[in-house]
# Entry
Amino acid sequence: MKGLLTLKTIPKDMINEIISLALDFKNGLKVTFPGKKMVTLFYENSTRTQYSFQMAMLNLGITPMSFNLAGSSVYKGETLYDTVRTFEALGVDGVVIRHTQDVYYKDLEGVGIPIFNGGDGTSDHPTQTLLDLMTIYEEFGRYEGLKVAMVGDISHSRVAHGNAEVMKRLGMKVYVSGPEQFKDTTGEYIEIDEAVRECDVINLLRVQFERHQEAMNITKEEYLEKYGMTPERVSRMKKGGIIMHPAPVNRGIEIHNDVVECERSRIYKQMTNGVFVRMAVITMALTGKL
Ligand code: NCD
# Structure
């Protein structure tokens, strides 16, 4: 299949090539694909991923189309495969898909147009990983030897799962931190207070309330105090350390209100970089490199 479904099968050199092209776009490179059209098929809510893909398309001269899930034939029982093949038959040149099901794209064998994964279940979110890597690269100029802590709701987070695999491969040491009930095997466990002292990147994660089977038995205030990023913890961060979060943020839960736009935060920069990495993956797919 063409496009970008996961970074797990993409070699390091190719990942570096994507980031390098994204940086070129940020520095003003212009590429256009006149006459091309693409659709964003989102089966889960999204602000950043969906509209940053559409912004990337507009910057490349590609016409973006949105998919209105509520008004679509999905509610007549149409399968994902049939919906994607329909858009292909209509003449679109690529689809961006976000879906609740892990690895949904295994059902899309036979689709001929590029598919870009905008997040699958709790498994993967490759363009988020790329924009996180771009932000880290801009900050530190390398990945090798950096320490990153994925902090919060690890087990429900496709960002934690997707990021950890690639970050380890690029030579970063990946830790996880947060409540016992959200732990998994993504990385070595580290207490939040040790993480802020030791790590170059504090990668906060949103508490994914919509994926929880059971309610958390802790108040918001307690969560912030025990596992979240407070101004006091920011003041104890490693020299040069940065805070990232894929957003949307739960203000007052995993992150204190005053930390969202503090000097160490790169949250809005991540969003800006997201447009450039999406321009890069679309360009590479349309020129046969992905
Ligand atoms: C993330 C997602 O949807 O996976 N958001 C995003 O794409 N920027 C993280 C989240 O929703 O918590």
